[in-house]
Amino acid sequence: MKDNGIDYKPFFPAEKINRLVTNDRVAAVLWRKPSDSLVIFVSQHARKMFLALVCGGVCSVKDLECIMQSCQAHGMTDDKLPIQAMACMGQGNDPRKCSPKHGPWLNVFHDSRWNRLKYGFRRDQCVLNAPVFSDRDFRYELTAECVLPFIWKAPDERDGHFSIPCREPLRVALKKMKPLNEWGYNVGSAWEHEVLALTEIRELRHKHLIRPLAAIKHGLEYYIMFEWAEGGSLRDVWKSKDKTDRYLTPERVMCVLEQLLGLAGALAALHNTNTRTSTGLATRAPSLQPASASSRTTTRRHLDTESEVHWRHGDLKPDNILHFKDHSSQRWLGTLKIADLGLAKQHFDKTSRRDEGTKQRYTTSQYEAPEAITNLESPRSRRYDIWSMGCIILEFVIVLLYGPDGLTAFYRERELDQASTDTLYFTLNTHNGPAHVSHIAKHWMEQILRNSECRRPEGSAISDLISLVRDRLLIVPLPADNMTEDQKKICRADASELQRELERMRGLALKRGDSYLLGEPERQHRSIPFPCSVQEPETRKEGQRYLKAPGPQAPWRELPFDKAWNYPVDNDFAAEFLRDTLYNTNVFPLVRLDVVLCENCAQASNWTSTSWIMRFEGEEPLNCRLHDLTLRACGLKPLANETTNLKVQRIGSNLYINGYSSPVLCLFKSPSLSAFYATPENAFSDIQTGFPDLQQVRDSMYFKLLSDWLRDCNAKHPQCNHGNSLKTPNSSARRLLPTRLIDVSQRPRSSRKEIDSVRLVVTARLPDHELHTDPRYIALSHPWGIRSQNNHFCTTRQNLTGRIEDGILVATLPATLQDAVTVTRELGIRYLWIDTICIIQGPDGDFDTEARLMESVFSLAYCVIAASRASGTSSGFLSPRRSRDFIALKTSNNSSSTTLYITTPLDDFQSDVIDGPLNKRGWVLQERALARRTIYFAASQTYFECGAGVRCETLTKMTNNQASFLGDPAFPTVALRSSKGAKIRLYELLYKTYSALHFTKIWDRPIAIAGLEQRLVWAFNTHGGYGVFDGQFFGRSLLWKRDEKAEENEVMKAIEFPVGDRRYYHVPTWSWMAYEGVIDFMDVPFDGVEWQHSEEEGVLSPWGRMAEQKKEEEVPHGDVVWHTGKANERTVLSAVGRALAVPLEEAETKIVYDGGRDLRRGQVSEVRVVVVGRQKTGNQHATNVGVLQHYVLVVGQRQDNGTAYRRLGVARLPGSWIDQKGPGRKISVV
């Protein structure tokens, strides 16, 4: 006996029944010696009847034989099972009791013996009567009591994979039709529609169309059974990380050609393109898609006998093309088959045009053709599928050439793109305007055709595939009846043409062999093309936000840091957090019954669709709550006397309006138990469980969330725990602690708040027993604010002793510091670090010493809390937040009901934190980068950032590659794992960002990033300081410049450091830290410059001698022997200065002065250039150096010192503009 894999009911497999019930066993069980005819009857025709009575255990041997004899006499055989309840069962042979009348075989059950047998028999007959599926039959209608013969279910229920018992268990895919919460939808009718489609498509018997095996009605449940694809989908093939997949071989290209040809043949069979119509349109399109509740059923008997039948798939994508592995060969690719055929649309052609609009609503937007948006009310033709095939072929070629990473780069183009791209493949100028193939798709096709594989005069398979996609498949115009034949030739191809072209390519491959398939020996994937958003400087659009493009040698993926955020659904954390607060109705409001939605929005609000159209009719009053919320979220106002269509796209929990790069609305679901898990019955597994509105600050649930963030991070992210000896208190822990901490463990001894106090402690004096309690501490990142408006509450030499011995009354702390104490206590941490209290301020303080320890203070903190919403020490950060607007709707699927909330977006870490006021403060960049995890208290909500991403108070999770760089818990791990080019872009981004930040004391500019600089120096295994690195980065990091595009940055003003203050030091003019203003870096091509770092030419690093000294003294790597904050370090650049060969006024057209052109006059007596790098050339002796570009520092001789020069700016000059005769003058740049 087996257990069913769906509802775990037991059943006997049919083949085991046949082996169990034999002549010998029947004869042995029956009373006395039965006749041979009875034994043969039972073993051949009534096995299940026999076993049902035997297994019941209440039928005597004598009664068993009598009943089986009655079955033989009345013709009651197994094929009459199952028997439904009968009023006359066990009521004797009186025919008047039989209602309704039944067949003579059922007279068996009139016997009074059935009074005690009938209940067990009804149960056991179902165990024995599991259906047997065969190729002869397709449709099965079974009672609810019948047990389906599926013995195993895949662990991932979303796979829908089951096994059927047979000699070798057969794996199948079982699709269950789910009831949708949609007006007018009926799951039974939808199943009938799909069965009608699959019954006829099944007859095509095409190798590359997935074969439906059975359509099953099981009581009130509906299923479709398909053959199982062991290899997953085509997308799974593309994602393969097998090491052999890195190589492009002729065999691989041939496999792809053959499979594409097979898919084209399958489409041609579906489309039946040998019809009389040339446009591929039909007169009708009755929907066979389950979600199209409003469409009318059309059956074969309603058709004109002269009509020709064809199909359109309507949702072709890599996920709907399945991979069937070929175990009989070693081929890389088995057989690809088109699946999800139940979505297909049936067309009945009688003329060449169709008047009804398409009713198929649920498709995948990335692969949909432009007419899905441009012609909403017009019918869709079979050529809709051809556009989708063009997208699939292009992506297949990208995978062949560049591997899975190449496809990821292609998909990310839409995130990087600033244009209004409706999909990755086409764009619209207006909602109802003409469509165009997207510049992204064009760019990638152009880049591929420039590949060496595609530039051979005799052609190649790759170039022919891309040309086919470009010239015949990704074509917007469709043929029409009023077109001439020549006009139709430039329209999108049909399936027949696609099949012919691929057949031609296959013929060329068989004829020309490897020279056509792959012109070069097998090799690894090619370099991924630059994204179309990364342009050369002269073609970059005004205001473009991306970093400059390097030379062609650098992979593009090392370059852009974008602000596009991803929102992965993470309901596991939500389930754990909400387990004890599941029914908190204050947090999850009840559904209002008076919420009004229009009919279209009511149908779309089942949220199973990925896109729909929201229509606004002029300025008519809005009778739809969702329309109203959308307009207010977008800030739009419909135009009078015009119809406005907005395309709404749902990606996970976010709703996007075409043209908007950020979510316009968000979806959350209530925390019902079934909603936490992705089960077949749960239609909302891709929607985040979360809060429609925020909790009250200071509530217990609010602080529980903060604690659970840290608990979850502790358990799952070992990289975010500093992993040092603070966990095990000892002498090392004492050395790692900050000099001073605030002990917040002292609690009020009565209800009087006045006696609540904290104490400043010197960690070197802490007794061992206090260290053993818990040495962890919280660090506060906050703005001080304007002194006249904020109490900075500084520790000085005068009040230090009192704060240590007597403590500090919490009531005397300014609001921001009070809130920090509250949060630290609620998190269960004893110690708190605040700079204003833990560092002695003032001229006689220890700021200069403590500032150099910031690297360890923030990196070793258990957690950093950032007062992002505070304007100063007196403003506080635990203040109430504003409520947001939302709609609550009750939805349901098979087993449970869930409340869905539609809300205005609140999760905006970019604006609230990264671009927020606190992060504009100079010290905070270092604090954020060095912290292993941070809780941000912003004005709109609270966020948690660690190495795994950002968590929001709404329970949303966010990730972003630029944020992950500074959110790296072991900064700069990203740099350590990166190539040289990526390291350069990382530090350039970091320094450029830092240079735009603000300081209360501008002379803190060099020291406020010294901790980060130490980390980078260590990561790069070099020396450095003042924003410049030694070694391979020296020349490039010297070539910083004033950002000419930055607002209010016409000049960079030299910082006036306090004179005579021992805390401050001389900053050299060659460092951007000596100036106030935003910087950028010169656009120097990678591997295209010869750096000049010798005594005869160029510039020498001030760390040259130090590197030798470190080597001789065997100083371990990572020990910093040079630090920006050390005033006695050597900061002089030794260089060779050369005069200009052209008038200074002419050179100034290419010079970017740090302080502006006018400010150089009166400060210097002579202007020279120092050649830092020179453009590379293949043969230096054969090239005129005068035409090569030179990257130079522009320096001026100081009037008070004839040998010393100061930096004035940078330039890129032709060699002919520089006097290169003679050795030049040796100078010092100070």
Automatic annotation (TrEMBL):
Query: Where does the Protein kinase domain start and stop, copy by copy?
Result: 137-474
Its taxonomic path starts at: Eukaryota, Fungi, Dikarya, Ascomycota, Pezizomycotina
A Pfam family name for this chain?
Pkinase
The record's GO molecular-function terms, alphabetically, read: ATP binding; protein kinase activity
Q: What is this protein called?
A: Protein kinase domain-containing protein
* UniProt region (Disordered), positions on chain: 278-305
